Amino acid sequence: MTSPMLDRIDSYPTHRVSGFPVRHGNPLLPGATFLHGGVNFAVCSENATAVSLVLYHHGDSEPYAELPIPDSFRTGHIWAIVVYELDGLDDLEYGYRCEGPAGEPGGVLSDPYAKLVAGREVWGREPDWSEPYQHRSRLMFHDFDWGDDTAPRIPREELVIYEAHVRGFTRHPSSAVTAPGTYAGLREKLPYLKSLGINAIELMPIFEFDEFENSRVNADTGERLYNFWGYSTVSFYAPKSGYAASGKYGMAGDELKALVRECHSHGIEVILDVVFNHTAEGNHEGPTISFKGLDNDVWYMMTPEGYYYNFSGTGNTMNCNHPVVRKFVLDCLRYWAVEYRIDGFRFDLAAILSRDVDGTPLPNPPILQELAFDPVLRGCVLIAEAWDAAGLYEVGSFPNYHRWSEWNGRYRDTIRRFVKGDTGMVGEMATRYVGSPDLYAGRATAASINFVTAHDGFTLYDLVSYNDKHNEANGEDNRDGANDNNSWNCGAEGETDDKEINDLRRRQVKNFLALLLTSQGVPMILAGDERGRTQWGNNNAYCHDSDLSWVDWTPNPLTDELVRFTGDLVRFRAAHPAVRTAEHPTGREVRPGLAEISWHGVTAYAPDWSDGSRLMAVMRCAPMGDAVDCVYVVANTHWEEHDVELPLLPDGALWRLAADTGAADCSFPLGEEPALDDQHVLRVGPRSTVVLCAQTV
Fold first, then answer.
1. What is the CB neighbour count within 10 angstroms for residue 28?
2. 127-151 burial: b if 16+ Cβ within 10 Å, else e
3. Alpha-carbon distance 352 to 361, whole Å?
4. Which domains does the chain have, with CATH numbers?
5. Tens of pLDDT, residues 113-149
6. CB within 8 Å of 68: residues ≥ 6 apart
7. How far apart are CA 484 and CA 502, in angstroms?
8. Which of 188, 224, 313, 632 has the most CB atoms in a 10 Å sphere around its CB?
9. Which residues contact 502 (CB under 8 A, 6 or more apart)?
10. 50: three-class secondary structure by DSSP
11. Active-site residue, selected from the candidate residues 93, 111, 273, 348
């Protein structure tokens, strides 16, 4: 019997081009799409006068066919063709050759919508630089079995985000995973994240990039330096094949999907760090990979003289509010949300997305508004790094449409100075601690992504071990990286055998963690900070695929202590609604005599906001069923201990000790918090933070 599909008129070729049966393609299907009997190829170019589809067998230097797309197959600016009788689709690589107004043929261009890219399938394998087409578009089969996968859909205020680099997280030999440095390797470490209480992992860029971009050898050390972080996208729809153990087999997509599915089964959401502010094509001296050859002045912000605006600091700036580029970005994020079931996106240098085509900041940027209200993305977390490399700083003023959260750079700067012991910081720290209502009034506390450290800068341990950056290993004479770190080495620069200094550093790390994990807003932890990871003072480790960037999984007393402390505090946060309420506190009473928030000093209800003060104490209360959840936190950044008067609780309620960074046994598991012997006065050690809890009925 003949299949009804075979009788469809639109399933038959109508022309022959270069020996292949073809027909007019569907311009509404950008990229390469499987259709009945063939593949639909569609690419947009406003400036091309002619476009050819170029076909390769996987790994071959020369194409085996080139199909000029008939002009009659063009709809508007979209060239679309369906090609039949393509053998070995899993072996097929393709690209486009465009001719411009001058009629000069160019090189072969990658498909902006390519779902997979060949050329860098094995991390660190030296490419053939004589090959003119380095990043080849490939087809990907969408046949992954998601089973009964369901997104966790965690309320934003309950998120605890863990920022991690896919390769760096498990590349160290001590990781003991089957496939170090891959999506599969990260998947093996999910029970560890679950044990910490982490419920969201933010992956540094996994869109296809070239680790050999600006690759070089450090003349002093002999180390090969790479584009390790990946903040320079080659292809926005394709997962980084070099991060997949199965990448050389063209299975990177399935391996990544298996990771996402496993994250969801552990109750962990997946957030992708996406880079739409620039591409790997650089400025006028950079390579032509895709966008430059298709429509240079559409995809990039251009000066009147024809050069590239450089608001990204990397040579070019994507023209994200141009209608064509805007549609591309929206299509791309929808694809990741649907095809890979991604739960959220963090936008690198997102202030660029608020700029007009000439770089002028817009009050209502179309791209940000569309992302905020798009129905497909409605359930996704949207996080902005609300600044760019050209000085546009929009923390607290980023166009948010009540949907966007922001990396709160002011929280980072304030908590660093406060814990270091700078004067005049108590009032500022109090504001940041309760969700920065001065910045996010009228928005939920989850608008503030609170962090002490991130990939860009010192690790948490280095923040308390170095006064200055030490980036000599980058081969740039220590000129790169930020100078305004607000760090303090506690008395010695770098590693030391001084027990007193090491004890203080350990206490300072815990102080940061205790304040971060009890602040209102969404906390973000940098991978390895809970293990005392060091980069030996390097605050710009973007180029190191080595011990300097990898998480070390070797157990030691410091690591064990910090992991236990972090897990206890994350679980404490999850159990106490008083520290993670969705709304900013107003001071209202939740029960007679119990205010939602009250501030204290060495004397209860008498905070000291003076410049010389180095002590912040706060009690927060929130309903929890029929009871009231009370949490009291006191942070003493003074080098002397203080006796602190505790606020009174209703009859029968007792203050219990959850954590004391100045004590030997510094944290307690949920339900095992001991009651204080003295319910009236608490001794707080020098440079220490104490967390108490109580439940009233």
1. 11
2. eeeeeebbbbbbbbeeebeeeeeeb
3. 8
4. 4-109 (2.60.40.10), 587-696 (2.60.40.1180)
5. 999 999 999 999 999 999 999 999 999 998 999 999 9
6. 17, 18, 50, 51, 52
7. 23
8. 632
9. 496
10. strand
11. 348
Burial of 314 (0-12, 13-18, 19+ CB in 10 A): buried
Which residues on adjacent β-strands are paired with residue 589? 595
* Contacting residues for 299 by C-beta, under 8 A, at least 6 apart: 279, 291, 292, 318, 319, 322, 324, 325
Q: Which residues contact 671 (CB under 8 A, 6 or more apart)?
A: none
- The DSSP symbol for 46 reads S
The tens digit of pLDDT for each residue in 243-295 reads: 999 999 999 999 999 999 999 999 999 999 999 999 999 999 999 999 999 99
CA gap 291, 435 in Å, rounded: 40
Segments of 160-219 assigned E as strands: 161-164, 200-203, 207-209, 216-217
pTM exceeding 0.90: yes
The token duo for 181 is 């440095």
What are the tokens at 647? 């606020």
Indicate if 385 belongs to the active site: yes
The pLDDT tens digits for 212-241 are 999 999 988 899 999 999 999 999 999 999
Active-site position among 208, 385, 462, 608? 385
Phi-psi region of 494 (alpha: psi -120 to 50; beta: other; left: phi over 0): left
What are the angstrom distances between the C-alpha of 410 and each of 269, 360, 586? 26, 24, 21
* DSSP character at residue 318: B
User: How many residues are recorded in the chain?
Assistant: 697
What tokens appear for 317 in the block? 């700036």
In terms of pLDDT, which residue wins out, 679 or 696? 679
Q: Which two tokens stand for residue 260?
A: 């996402």
Bridge partners for 17 per DSSP: 20
User: What stretches of 558-596 adopt beta strand conformation (E)?
Assistant: 589-591, 594-595
Joined together, the tokens standing for residue 318 give 């994507």
- Yes or no: say if 159 and 200 are a contact pair by the CB < 8 Å rule: yes
